[in-house]
Membrane integrity-associated transporter subunit PqiC (Sphingomonas aliaeris), 198 residues
Amino acid sequence: MTMTKFTVLLPIAGALALGGCISFGAKPPPVLLTLESAQSVPAGETRSSASAATITIAVPSVSQALATTRVPVQSSATSVAYVKDAQWVELPARLFARLAADTVAARTGRVVLSTAQSFSDPGARLSGELRNFGVDGSTSEAVVTFDAALIRTTGEVVEKRRFEARVPIAAIEANAASQGINQAANQVAGQVADWVGK
């Protein structure tokens, strides 16, 4: 009876001892970074597609360098590194799409729809590619570049335009980089909203 208890408890004790030695993922950074919209629709305000134009904003496509929650640093024309201890709370494309939706809604008065909400009446359609969403190491600037594609009506005419903002940062580290990228992303979102609203 004692031998049976011992043989059962021994593997459990071994597993518990190893639990302190094994890590199944990278050590998380001290904080996760996010974007804050400079403009948004006030809480409680109701908008209806019966009285306002609609626009569907898609999550932009990205290169492999941006298909991660890490913050890229373009250290040369052909090499990319990442800011130490800097990680977004979610993928940059989703953060930027949400920021653009807040800004377009606030500045244009349009009803902004996600692709999941747009089946009955998508209205205008905004999509594109997020080309830069990080730091230019050679100039110490936060850089956000968005190649936008806009279909204004139910027709098939596509307008394309590149938007870019650069914001100087004091150091290539998590806090300075996130603040600079947040400012640059808001500038780009504002430019996009003004283009959509014209």
